[in-house]
Amino acid sequence: MTQRTIRFGVIGCGLMGKEFASAAARWCHLTDVNFIPVITAVCDANPDAIGWFKQAVPSVEKTFTDYRDLLADPDIDAVYCAVPHNLHAQLYVDIIRSGKHLLGEKPFGIDREANADIQKAIAENPEVLVRCSSEFPFFPGALQIAKWVEEGRFGKIIEVEAGFWHSSDLDPQKPINWKRRIATNGEYGCMGDLGMHVLHLPMRFGWKPANVRSLLSQIIEERPDGKGGTAPCETWDNAILACEVQTKDQAFPMLLSTKRIAPGHANTWFIRIQGTAFSAEFTTKNPKQLAWLPYEAGGKQAWHVMDVPYKSAYGTITGGIFEFGFSDSILQMWAAFCDEIANGTGRMLQPFHCATPEEAEFSHRLFTAALESNRTGGTIPL
């Protein structure tokens, strides 16, 4: 099979930039795909961050400390950008205007105004493919739930719950970083940092909140500043958003939660859907396990639980008996982005695409309303 080579530049050589490089190095893990990413250039304002790429990624030919120099390179087709939220508007807009396809990190702007600037650039450059990073819905269990929703299995929806929780911030001695500062992370706090993961599937199902009542928590108020003192934590640690969803034929409550301090959880993503005819739930805490409950009037109510086969959106060399993990979900997400570049949105090898700018834009509407709800104590319409 002839494969189209997509030449990538990486802007932001931190943790997630390295994860993309690792996914590109594992491309042989995929079967029957007609595209392959090759990272040819990287950029970071900190020259020390570039060192790992020069050592670990042989395809890297060029390194930059100014992202404008990377965008001026005609030998780059697409960019992955992973930088703090306050830099999204300027960098994403410049990337889009350069004509290079973009996979950017959430939340696509530090606030709603910044997101509007990005949306304007997208509208002015329709030939550029722009998508938002969100890998967890590519787990096989999540894809199976998406298929059940598409098939209309659930009957009348009773309620939905989705969340993304981790616990590393439970340690009060963890040094402060950019995610705890409004200037770099934004007022959304944990919502902007984690929320697109939570909203990805509900948005894809057409379940947009009509209103929101929020409960936002700031649990640890200061942290070590790395200089022998302490610094105030300015952003929200945890958020619980109680929403009402109104579709063309039904209404139901939906509870969304993003938590940096959830004792015992290390990056746990989950979704639970309860319906009158069918219920299902999946969590990455048990990544090989899927639970569902079919129901007929007068029948028994019994949960079924089984190990999910390793059956992903794109075929792999891995046997079905093995366990799917985080690095696999990133590889699948990247395959979806490259598929859409190579084959076009309507001709992808499989139909589940990455999170869209429109889905990211709605997340800003929701998070802005959640901030207002927290200030006023009321339920805010969207």
The second-level CATH architecture of the largest domain is 2-Layer Sandwich
**In percent, how much strand structure appears in the residues?**
25-35%
Measure the end-to-end span: 48 Å
Profile the largest sheet.
9 strands, mixed
CATH-defined topology of the largest domain = Dihydrodipicolinate Reductase, domain 2
Going by helix content, strand content and strand pairing, the class is alpha/beta
InterPro entries: Gfo/Idh/MocA-like_OxRdtase_N, Gfo/Idh/MocA_oxidrdct_glycsds, GFO_IDH_MocA-like_dom, NAD(P)-bd_dom_sf
Keywords: Oxidoreductase
GO molecular function: nucleotide binding; oxidoreductase activity
Organism: Paenibacillus aurantius
Describe this structure in words.
Residues 144-245 form the GFO/IDH/MocA-like oxidoreductase domain. With 382 residues, the chain is an alpha/beta fold. It contains ten helices and 17 strands. It has helices spanning 15-25, 47-56, 67-71, 88-97, 112-124, 140-150, 182-185, 190-204, 326-343, 357-376, and strands spanning 4-11, 35-43, 62-64, 78-81, 101-104, 130-132, 157-165, 209-217, 222-224, 230-232, 238-246, 251-259, 268-275, 278-283, 289-294, 304-307, 380-381. The strands form three sheets. Strands 16-15-14-13-7-12-11-8-17 form a nine-stranded mixed β-sheet. Helix 8 (190-204) crosses helix 10. The radius of gyration is 21 Å and the shape is globular. The termini are far apart.
